[in-house]
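Researcher: Structure prediction, please.
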Amino acid sequence: MVPVLRGLVLPHATFIAFGVAYGELAIGVSLVLGILVRPASVCGFIYMMTLLFSANYPGLHAAIWQYFGASLDHSVLALCFAVFAITRRDEHLKPWAWLRATRKN
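Model: Predicted structure follows.
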């Protein structure tokens, strides 16, 4: 792993940093504006999973349950992105759908 980090990541650190920053911006703008929500949620889920597996490493000899216990901040956000990615978008979080449902009753 160290040769990959030294040979690939370190020489291109600025490019990778800009890619991550613009990726986060694209996911956020897409979710706020409601444009391409499902693909943005899938990308957000993948991003949270990479953060989960890279940022909260508890150590070489730690049990697997400690790995996920140490990363609750990323795993909760990953679950939120997963819910946005798999649910039907036309039934939830729309005020006009709620108004139509209340008018029918």
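Model: Residues 13-33 form the longest helix (21 residues).
Researcher: Thanks, that helps.
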